[in-house]
C-alpha cells in the first residue's frame, strides 16, 4: 500500500462522513417541500399537468442521464484511468448535487427561512453539478478524489454567488447557460489547473494515452450527451414556442457541428484519417454555440451556421491553441474544456448579443416582452397596461433599450470570467495542501493508486496471450 492510498483510508472517509452529517443537519433545518410536492397543497383532484413534476421531470431525467452516464463515459478515455474517469464522476456528481440543493436553493428557492425543494430545484442543482464536472475535465487524472470533492465543495458556492449576482444585478438573457454554465466552468477549471501545473507533463506521460476500448466508451458518452443536449438547453426556457425553438435550434446546431467535425478531422490529419478525439469532442460544439440565443427567433439557418462556426473553432482550438496554453501559459487543460466550452461559449455570447440587438416587436409580437423581460415597460408606463391586456400576468420590466441590454450582456461575460478564474485560482491553492493527497507525477492517469485489485493492461494482455 502506498503512502498516498494509506492517507485516503482515513482522510476520504473523514471528509465524506463529516460533510454528510453537516448536509443532513442543514437539510433537517432548512429544506422542505415546495407547494407542488407538499400534500397540504395538493389533492387527488389536482390536474396532473398543473404539477411541475409532469411538466419538468422528463427534462430532469434527460439531464440526470447526461450527468451520470454521458459525462461518466466521456471522461473514461484514458487507457489506464477508466475507473477513475467514471467512478470519480459518479462521486463528484452525487456530492455536488446534494451540496447545490442547499447552496443554490438558498439564493433561488428560499423564503420563510426555508429552501422549498421541487423538480426545478433539482434541475438547477444539476446545472451546478454540470459546471463542476466541466471544470473537473481540466484536471482529469491529475487529482485525488479528495481534491475533487474539495473542488466541488468550493466551486458550487462560487458559482451560486456569481449566478445570483449576475442575474439579480445585471439581469441578462442566458437561456442555454453559455455565460453562467460554460464560461464559468471553463475559466474556473483553467484557474485550478494553472495553479496545479505539473512541468513534467508538458513532455508527455507514458500513461496519458487511450486504447481501442476506452475510445469506444468515450464515444458512447459523446452520443449520450449529443442525444440529450436539447433537454439541457431547453429545460428552463419558457414553456411553449420558446422551448420548442430551443429544442429545434440545439438539434440543428449539433447536427452542423457534427458534420464539420468529421470534415475537419479528415482534412487536418496528414493521413486523411479521422481522429477519435475530434469525434468525441468537436461534435458537441454546436450545443454550446447556440446556447445564448437558443430561445430567440434567430432562424434555423443561423443555428446551423453557429454549429459550423463552433465546430471549426473547437477543432482549431484542440489542434493549435491547447499546446500553446500548456507550453507558454502553464494551463494543462486535460480534456480541452477551453475549446469545447470557452471558445464556443464566447462565440455563443457574441451571437446572443447580436440577436438581442436585432430583436423587436415586429419579429416576436407581444411575446417579445416575455422573452426579453427586462425590456418591458416600467411600472406606470401606459404601454405596459396595453401589453398586460394582451398578455395577462406580464410583469413590469426595466424599460431597457437593445443597446443597453447588449452592454449588460457584455458586462456579465467579463464579470463571470473574472470571478470564475479568481475562484479557480484560489481553489487551486487550497487543493495544493498536502492533506488532500495529490498523486505524484508517476501515478497520474492511473487507477492503480485508488482502486483495489486493479490489473494493469500489460498483465491482462499477457494473460490473453498465454
Automatic annotation (TrEMBL):
GO terms for biological process: ammonium homeostasis. The chain crosses the membrane at residues 12-33, 59-81, 87-107, 119-140, 179-197, 217-238, 250-268, 301-321, 342-359, 406-431. It is found in: Cell membrane. Keywords: Ammonia transport, Cell membrane, Glycoprotein, Membrane, Transmembrane, Transmembrane helix, Transport. Residues 24-433 form the Ammonium transporter AmtB-like domain. It is a multi-pass membrane protein. Signal peptide: none annotated. Functions as an ammonia transporter. May play a role in the elimination of ammonia in the gill. This is Rh50-like protein. The lineage of its organism: Eukaryota, Metazoa, Chordata, Craniata, Vertebrata.
